[in-house]
């Protein structure tokens, strides 16, 4: 939660708009957009629904403001942002207004009880990437509409630029830099969560590396090698769930960050990825396999050490004959691996 003295809307909006373009993390940009727009719209709550390329909601950000008076009479605004993953229980009015916006490709509003529910499409370049939603008692003035549209245009252009800098050109997946930001953010969210929630939210990081990729390049050439990378990324993406995260970490190495209740469930998920990649029939090449290692994203282990643990487990999978998945803690318990220190000071 953040608190600040209420400022006059226009300079404050320009300051916040400028701040948006200084941020390098896409989720922080989203948060900043909500902070910028709420005073313009004059509402206490705004939400951002982020969608995947298949129009499925991947996460929701809720921004809320509360006003109070200082002892000297000055107004003080407290702000809070809640990030929600895996939300399936979406209000039917919100679903309907989202469907309208999706079909029409433009902002819409509809009545909800005494108020009006507004929905603006968010774009990343040409693609629809989410929705801005808020409710208020009356329609927007032409000036308000123009300001909202202008702010959203700046946001969309910047978001698209930032997003493309964090994507791998060949596969379109998020790249190593994006992975580092996502893992760090996840780690910080888990560290800030109340203990009961932290025990419930179990995330796992898997390093997945195509086997003998050099020999695929050597035998079939780099163009076919590239094609394999693209196809493997698609198979992995289709096999993962919409809330899982997939990155091309570099070369023939991918990273998946997934939520699973326990080690067995996580192991099954990574096994499913391995099987799906192995079962696909790749034109010219035939079969391709991958080896993987995974480790839990724990707040007692710094992100770079989580990554190193999963990486070590992946190398054990290679050593054991490839086309298999290994779990770091199990290898540790078996005495196969030395402990990778949990790390200190720098996150990456
Ligand atoms: N076609 C193509 N090849 C790449 C790309 N990035 C990395 N490579 C190649 O990936 C190969 C990786 O080879 P190695 O690290 O020896 O691993 P490997 O042959 O897969 O062997 P194991 O991992 O031990 O099973 C190298 O030949 C790289 O040149 C890329 O973007 N496209």
From TrEMBL:
InterPro entries: Diguanylate_Cyclase (IPR050469), GGDEF_dom (IPR000160). GO terms for molecular function: diguanylate cyclase activity. It is an enzyme of class 2 (transferase). Its EC number is 2.7.7.65. Residues 201-330 form the GGDEF domain. GO terms for biological process: cell adhesion involved in single-species biofilm formation; negative regulation of bacterial-type flagellum-dependent cell motility. One of its GO terms (cellular component) is plasma membrane. This is diguanylate cyclase. It comes from Duganella violaceipulchra.
């Amino acid at each position: 939660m953040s608190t600040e003295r209420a400022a006059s809307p226009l300079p404050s909006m320009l300051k916040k708009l400028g701040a948006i373009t200084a941020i390098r993390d896409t989720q922080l940009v989203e948060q900043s957009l909500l902070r910028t727009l709420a005073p313009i719209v004059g509402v206490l709550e705004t939400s951002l629904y982020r969608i995947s390329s298949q129009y499925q909601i991947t996460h929701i950000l809720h921004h809320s403001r509360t006003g109070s008076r200082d002892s000297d009479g000055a107004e003080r605004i407290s702000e809070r942002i809640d990030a929600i993953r895996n939300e399936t229980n979406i209000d039917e009015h919100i679903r309907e207004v989202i469907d309208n916006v999706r079909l029409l490709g433009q902002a819409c509003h509809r009545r909800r009880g005494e108020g009006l529910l507004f929905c603006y499409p968010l774009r990343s370049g040409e693609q629809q990437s989410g929705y801005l939603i808020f409710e208020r008692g009356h329609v927007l003035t032409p000036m308000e509409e123009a300001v909202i549209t202008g702010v959203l245009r700046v946001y969309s252009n910047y978001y698209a630029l930032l997003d493309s800098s964090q994507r791998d050109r060949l596969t379109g997946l998020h790249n190593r830099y994006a992975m580092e930001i996502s893992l760090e953010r996840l780690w910080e969210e888990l560290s800030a969560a109340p203990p009961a929630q932290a025990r419930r939210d179990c995330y796992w990081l898997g390093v997945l590396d195509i086997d003998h990729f050099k020999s695929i390049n050597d035998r079939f050439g780099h163009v076919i090698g590239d094609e394999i990378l693209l196809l493997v990324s698609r198979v992995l993406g289709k096999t993962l769930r919409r809330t899982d995260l997939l990155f091309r970490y570099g070369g023939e190495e991918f990273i998946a960050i997934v939520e699973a209740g326990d080690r067995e469930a996580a192991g099954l998920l990574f096994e499913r990825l391995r099987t799906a990649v192995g079962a696909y029939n790749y034109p010219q090449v035939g079969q391709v396999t991958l080896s993987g290692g995974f480790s839990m994203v724990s707040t007692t282990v710094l992100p770079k050490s989580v990554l190193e643990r999963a990486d070590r487990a992946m190398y054990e999978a290679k050593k054991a004959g490839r086309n298999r998945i290994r779990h770091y803690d199990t290898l540790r318990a078996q005495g196969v691996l030395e402990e990778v220190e949990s790390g200190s000071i720098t996150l990456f």
